[in-house]
Specification:
By secondary structure, the chain is mainly α. It has one domain: Glycerol uptake facilitator protein. The protein contains 12 helices and 2 strands. The protein has helices at residues 14-18, 42-68, 75-97, 103-112, 120-141, 143-149, 155-158, 174-196, 208-222, 233-245, 263-283, 311-326; strands spanning 3-5, 25-27. The protein has a two-stranded antiparallel sheet. α2 (42-68) runs antiparallel to α3 (75-97), α4 packs antiparallel against α5 (120-141) and α4 packs parallel to α11.
Length: 332
C-alpha cells in the first residue's frame, strides 16, 4: 500500500485541502514519489456543487415532509436535520469545489474573495439543479402521505418544499420575511468567513464542515419563525419550481396570495454581501497578516514555507492559497 502526505510537495496547510486544491504525494513505504493528480475542471466543480446541494436538500426537505405530513418530529429535528445536511454536503463537495452549495455565498465570495465571476452563474445553476432533483425525490417518496394530508396540494403542505412568511401560519408579511432573510444570511456568511479564515481561530479542515452545519442548526433554532430560514436561493427556488410542476398551483405565492418567490432569492444575496462586509470591516481588518500585501479577509501566505525556499515554490504555495479563496466553503 502507498502512503499519502496531505501536505504534499509544497507544504500547504490542511485548510487548503478544504478548498479542493489537489496536492499530495504518494508512493511505496520507505520512499515517496510525486503522483499525478487530476486537475480541477469546471465540470468537476459543478458536479460537486450539484451533488453537495442534492445531499443538503434531501435531508432538509425530507425532515420537513416527515414532520409536516407524517407527524413525526418537531422544530428541533428540522433544525438538526438541515444542519447535518449542510455538514454532509460540505464534506462531499469541499475537496473539489469548496462546497458553496448556496448562490448567495458564491456571489459574496466573488465580490469579496476573488472567486471568478465567470463561474458564479454555472455554480448557481448547478446548486439549483441539485436542489430541484432532491425535491423531486422527496416529492416522489412522500407522495402518499402528502396526498393523504392535503389532496388538493395547497398551502398546507407547500411549506415542505419552499418557505413562506411566518411559515405559512403566523402573521408575518413580505417585508418582515425579507428583513429576516437578510439578517439570517448575513449571520451565516459572517460565520462562514470566520470559520474558513486561516488568520482567525479556524477549526481546521476536518472540523470546518461540522462547525458550518452547527451554524445552520443555530440559525434554524433562533431565526426560523419569520421566514423559515431559507438563507439560500437555490434551496428555495429549485424545490419551489418542482412543487409547481408537480401540482402545487400556488407555489409562487404566499398564504396571502401575493407573489413571494423573489424574497428568498434577493434577500439572501443582500444578506450574504452584508455579512461579508461586516466580517472584513469589523473583524478581518484587525487580524494579523503575513505580509504587507495581504488584504483583510484573505488567507495569508503559508507559514509552513521554510525560509530560503526557491521563489517558484513559494509562489506556488501562495497560488494555492489564492485558489483556496476561489473555493472557500460554505453552506445551506
Amino acid at each position: 500500500m502507498g502512503t499519502f502526505d496531505p501536505n504534499g510537495v509544497t507544504g500547504v496547510t490542511p485548510s487548503v485541502l478544504l478548498s479542493g486544491r489537489p496536492t499530495g504525494r504518494c508512493g511505496p513505504p520507505g520512499g515517496t514519489v510525486t503522483a499525478p493528480l487530476k486537475p480541477h475542471t469546471l465540470a468537476g466543480e459543478l458536479a460537486a456543487e450539484f451533488a453537495g446541494t442534492l445531499i443538503l436538500i434531501l435531508f432538509g426537505l425530507g425532515v420537513v415532509a416527515q414532520v409536516v405530513a407524517g407527524g413525526i418530529g418537531d422544530h428541533d429535528s428540522i433544525a438538526w436535520a438541515w444542519g447535518l445536511g449542510v455538514t454532509f454536503g460540505v464534506y462531499l463537495a469541499a475537496r473539489i469545489s469548496g462546497a458553496h452549495l448556496n448562490p448567495a455565498v458564491t456571489i459574496a465570495l466573488a465580490a469579496f474573495r476573488g472567486f471568478p465571476w465567470r463561474k458564479v452563474g454555472p455554480y448557481a445553476l448547478a446548486q439549483t439543479a441539485g436542489a430541484a432533483v432532491a425535491a423531486l425525490l422527496v416529492r416522489w417518496n412522500y407522495d402518499d402521505v402528502l396526498t393523504a394530508m392535503d389532496p388538493d396540494h395547497t398551502i398546507a403542505t407547500q411549506g415542505v418544499f419552499s418557505t413562506l412568511p411566518g411559515n405559512g401560519t403566523l402573521p408575518v408579511g413580505t417585508w418582515g420575511a425579507f428583513r429576516d432573510q437578510v439578517i439570517g444570511t448575513a449571520i451565516l456568511m459572517l460565520l462562514i468567513l470566520a470559520v474558513t479564515d486561516l488568520r482567525n481561530s479556524s477549526p481546521g479542515v476536518n472540523l470546518a464542515p461540522f462547525v458550518i452545519g452547527l451554524i445552520v442548526v443555530a440559525i434554524g433554532m433562533a431565526w426560523g419563525t419569520n421566514a423559515g430560514y431559507a438563507i439560500n436561493p437555490a434551496r428555495d427556488f429549485g424545490p419551489r419550481l418542482v412543487s409547481w410542476l408537480t401540482g402545487y398551483g400556488t407555489a409562487w405565492q404566499d398564504q396571502y396570495g401575493q407573489l413571494y418567490f423573489w424574497v428568498p432569492i434577493i434577500a439572501p444575496v443582500i444578506g450574504a454581501l452584508v455579512g461579508a462586509v461586516f466580517y472584513d470591516q469589523v473583524v478581518g481588518r484587525f487580524l494579523p497578516v503575513a505580509d504587507a500585501d495581504a488584504e483583510p479577509g484573505r488567507t495569508p501566505t503559508d507559514p509552513d514555507v521554510p525560509q530560503g525556499r526557491h521563489d517558484a515554490e513559494a509562489t506556488d504555495v501562495r497560488r494555492v492559497h489564492v485558489d483556496r479563496d476561489e473555493h472557500t466553503s460554505s453552506s445551506t
